[in-house]
Specification:
The complex is a heterodimer of chains A (about 750) and B (about 160). Chain A is about 25% helix and about 25% strand. Chain A has a 7-stranded mixed sheet with strand order 3-5-1-12-9-10-11, sandwiched between helices. A 6-stranded mixed sheet of chain A has the order 7-15-14-13-8-27. A 4-stranded mixed sheet of chain A has the order 16-24-25-26, sandwiched between helices. Chain B has 2 domains: about 5-80, Beta-grasp domain (Ubiquitin-like (UB roll)); about 90-155, [2Fe-2S]-binding domain (DNA polymerase, domain 1, Orthogonal Bundle). The chains are: A alpha+beta (about 750), B alpha+beta (about 160).
């Protein structure tokens, strides 16, 4: 059945309210079950052995002594995960990342795994696995890795996206380019040009729950997996492909997820757990330690970015260029490409060019991290924009408003925008009381803007009307931050029933059709679209049942305010039938009532935000404290405003941590030196102020309620907003993230941006 | 290795268990006693997800040995509600949307309970510093701090 997704303005009854979340009780009582909170009969403990070397050829593995340990039931290496990828390079890289095949490519790369009756036996067995390594030269720095004399991570890799094909292999996996106009002509018209280079260090998503799963392979070729993931259907597909299982025979249940932020969109140890279970013939629980999470699961890219922007004295940007080099870890991705696409997305530019370079390094495989790749590009661009505004003597907000993209603007990455929120968020910032609040000594105010695409994707839901008229909504997008509440509100709204009469659950892979991941801020956007569609289909069934009950044509039955009503003067004596009335009779009118929906949620509206931040810098120590923070972002329509605010606040806090503290620190030996929360310090409660939020609602024309994704954009502006605030506080322009005390001290001492 | 026999008071119940001498209280709670509410986020005492209250003091149960529970009184998240009556902190966390993924929530609730047991009228700064040993990556702490302050007000008998 075709689905009309067009936005229609309406008065909402449920949407926009703030009811209690359905999973709240479980989560405050300790009953909610996360990845590590599930057990199976006869379950073994899995443990992974990881490379201590940043780059090494695996000459020989001898597992015989480990296998002899009492209580050890299986030891697996790459030999137990044969290559079934059939020429699919991307899939082979996933397999190689799960278990190194010929070379260990980073400190922490898995090389073997064991399953034993308890953790003690598993630990002992790991120590007895003998591996002979031939240690190779390594490279972890993005600029060093891009040099022609750098140690090669993949000797067969030639840079893609350049003509003619290079003669020599390189760590630069791909070049991508976006833009339009003539930037040279644009710079010739500029009165002022700012040109700067920036660096950002690698940050981790830092979810509190480590990766965890329980895998159980059965002798008949079926298998079950319980796992914390942002997308159990995608995990099922990849694991089935890598293990040679039929998709229908692998059932994956997503646990409650203890944070993901993109990091749980990639499989890490799950195929290994399945391989262990297959070999041992018993279920295997595999839980990463925090050390493993940092060393071997996806951080974001480290970057090196050059930006050049020119403007006329009247405040019009005439040309903008960015060259962006992003680390990918040891396998090619499209991280710099995303950076290149997002760099100038906030602005309406006549002449713009961005070039991205994907750089392989001996670090863990880069994974998505909330608006992946956009924060680093925004740090560079928004810092340069601020500096440019200063040089021509314009207020930074007014300068951005003058150049802001609007409906009809051809974006720097290609598409033409529909109705968008960059201008309104800037205008809201301009008139926000935060902008005129007084500042003290060593304090400064900064602001910056951010963009994210948002995504829709494949989505499937089932909506079942129960015999008592309550509704069970089964969705396939994992709830990472309150979406069961939002989707229940949506179902209640569309059906015209109470929120409390809807119960949303996340269904497993055996009970619902395929769903893409909860990524790209798509969870509520796409599943709400599918929920509206399913509800409309259920309403159609209920109209038919009412028509049957009344013995009138279905065309004469309308659905209003949660009731079937007979339309027309002839039917004046027919009292409207509620969902409960119709459900109660369903056994006699044709059986169970349900609405299904399968769709590709196109038209995810792009998202923009403007952040304002006040900092205080201690000139003696270089320590920076955030003293006030405001997030202004377009939500399209805030379905459950509390959880929209939560997304804004959480993203801002992650951005603050990245801006000021968080970084992967590698030693000369290529080993990660801070794989723990003590030395990789994420913001704690006493580091932060309250984070104020302002939700703007510029409806997305491609969603019936105007909803846009809200999850990711909030991490994009903080790096630059804080950098700009520091510049205004103490007069140094920081060009290296994180802006940690030593870097600020060095900048104050005259080093440029350190 | 011989097992150690331990008698303790757990959520007001007398409990006995056997554990290895090197086994953490967190592992005992999760693996031997079936109390999965305390989470292992780091295993090194840095994240607070495994927080429980031992003799009135918040501890990271990953840094306490199971054998150390001998003769002690342990409170975990599973004992926070009185039957079907939630503790005011539990109610306020839900009302204020002070949790997103919720994996840090049991630890925060234990730490916040210990705070309010000791100090019924904490300032925002006192709340923030008391909870500085509990990491949350989802919320930015804003709604957590508000929920704790509101629960404290309710427990003092003030209308919120």
């Amino acid at each position: 059945m075709s689905f009309d997704a067009e936005f229609r303005n309406q008065q909402f009854k449920s949407v926009g309210s703030r009811p209690l979340r359905p999973d709240g009780i479980d989560k405050v009582t300790g009953r909610a079950r996360y990845g590590a909170d599930f057990n199976m009969p006869g379950q073994l403990v899995g443990r992974v052995l990881r490379s201590p070397h940043a780059h090494a050829r695996i000459v020989r593995i001898d597992t015989s002594r480990a296998e002899a340990v009492k209580g050890v039931k299986a030891v697996v290496t790459a030999a137990d995960l044969p290559d079934l990828t059939n020429g699919d390079a991307e899939l082979l890289h996933i397999l190689d990342n799960c278990m190194a095949r010929t070379k260990a490519l980073y400190d922490g790369h898995a090389v073997a795994a064991v399953a034993a009756i308890d953790a003690k036996a598993a630990r002992e067995a790991l120590k007895l696995i003998e591996i002979e390594y031939e240690v190779l030269p390594h490279v972890v720095d993005v600029d060093a890795a891009a040099q022609s004399d750098a140690p090669l991570i993949d000797e067969t890799l030639f840079t893609g996206g350049v003509e003619p094909k290079p003669a020599k292999p390189s760590n630069v996996a791909n070049r991508s380019e976006f833009g339009h106009g003539d930037v040279d002509a644009g710079f010739a018209q500029a009165d002022v040009i700012v040109e700067r280079s920036f660096r950002t260090e690698q940050a981790h998503q830092g979810y509190i729950e480590p990766h965890a799963c329980v895998a159980s392979c059965n002798p008949d070729g079926t298998a079950d997996m319980w796992v914390c993931t942002q997308g159990h259907f995608v995990y099922r597909q990849i694991c089935a492909d890598l293990l040679g299982l039929e998709v229908s025979k692998l059932r994956v249940t997503s646990s409650e997820i203890g944070g993901g932020f993109g990091g749980k969109t990639h499989v890490w140890a799950e195929p290994v757990a399945l391989a262990l279970s297959r070999k041992a013939g018993r279920p295997v629980k595999l839980v990463m330690s925090r050390d493993e999470v940092f060393r071997a699961s996806g951080p974001t890219s480290a970057t090196s970015i050059d930006v050049k922007i020119g403007a006329r004295k009247d405040g019009t940007i005439t040309a903008a260029v960015a060259h962006l080099r992003y680390t990918n870890g040891p396998y090619p991705g499209m991280w710099a490409e995303l950076g290149a696409m997002t760099s100038f997305a906030c602005y309406d530019l006549e002449n713009v060019k961005t070039v991205g370079y994907e750089v392989l390094v001996n670090r863990p495989k880069v994974a998505a991290y909330r608006a992946p790749s956009a924060p680093m590009a925004a740090f560079a661009v928004e810092s340069a924009i601020d500096e440019l505004a200063g040089k021509i003597g314009m207020d930074p907000v007014a300068f951005r408003i003058r150049n802001a993209a609007k409906e009809g603007t051809k974006s720097s990455y290609g598409p033409v925008y529909g109705p968008i929120g960059i201008g309104p968020t800037l205008e809201a910032a301009q008139s926000h009381p935060h902008m005129s609040a007084p500042l003290g000594p060593n304090q400064g105010r900064g602001m910056a803007c951010g963009f994210w695409f948002n995504f829709g994707g494949q989505t499937c839901t089932d909506l079942n009307v129960n015999a008592d008229g309550t509704v069970t909504l089964a969705v396939g997008t994992v709830d990472v931050g309150g979406s069961r509440a939002s989707l229940s509100l949506i179902a209640a709204e569309e059906l015209g029933i109470a929120y409390d009469d809807v119960k949303a659950v996340v269904a497993d892979t055996a009970t619902l059709g395929y769903n893409d991941m909860t990524d790209g801020s798509r969870g509520t956007f796409s599943s709400s679209m599918a929920t509206i569609s399913a509800a409309r289909n259920a309403i159609d069934v209920m109209r038919h049942r009412a028509a049957l009950t009344w013995d009138i044509p279905v065309e004469d039955v309308v659905w209003e305010d949660g009731h079937a009503k007979a339309r027309g003067e002839n039917y004046g004596n027919l009292a409207p039938l509620s969902v409960k009335d119709i459900a109660a009779e369903s056994g006699k009118t044709g059986g169970p009532i349900a609405g299904h929906s399968e769709l590709v949620a196109d038209g995810a509206g792009v998202s923009f935000a403007t952040h304002i931040c006040d900092v205080e810098v201690d000139p003696e120590t270089g320590a920076t404290r955030i003293i006030r923070y405001t997030v202004i972002q377009d939500a399209g329509k805030a379905v459950h405003p509390s959880y929209v605010e939560g997304q804004y606040q959480g993203g801002a806090a992650q951005g603050i941590g990245w801006a000021l503290n968080e970084e992967y620190i590698y030693g000369e030996d290529g080993r990660l030196q801070n794989p723990g929360f003590l030395d990789y310090r994420i913001p704690v409660c006493s580091d932060l102020p309250m984070i104020d939020t302002q939700i703007l609602e510029i409806p997305n024309p491609n969603h019936p309620y105007g909803v846009r994704g809200v999850g990711e954009t909030s991490i994009v502006p903080p790096l630059a907003a804080i950098g700009n605030a520091i510049s205004n506080a103490v007069g140094v322009r920081m060009s290296h993230i994180p802006m940690s005390p030593p870097r600020i001290r060095a900048a104050l001492d005259g080093g440029a941006g350190s | 290795m011989a097992s150690v026999s331990v008698s303790t008071t757990l959520n007001t119940d007398e409990v006995e268990f056997l554990c290895q001498a090197d086994e953490t209280l967190l592992d005992v709670l999760r693996n031997r006693l079936g109390l999965m509410g305390a989470k292992e986020g780091c295993g090194t005492g840095d994240c607070g997800a495994c927080s429980v209250i031992m003799d009135g003091r918040v501890v990271c149960s990953c840094l306490v040995l199971g054998a150390e529970a001998q003769g002690k009184t342990i409170e975990t998240i599973e004992g926070m509600a009185q039957g079907s009556e939630l503790h005011p902190l539990q109610k306020k966390f839900i009302e204020h949307a002070a949790l997103q993924c919720g994996v840090c929530t049991p630890g925060f609730l234990m730490a916040a309970k210990a705070l309010l047991d000791a100090n019924p009228s904490p300032t925002e700064e006192e709340i923030r510093f008391w909870l500085a040993g509990n990491l949350c990556r989802c919320t930015g702490y804003d709604k957590i701090v508000r929920a704790v302050a509101d629960a404290a007000a309710e427990m003092r008998g003030e209308a919120s």
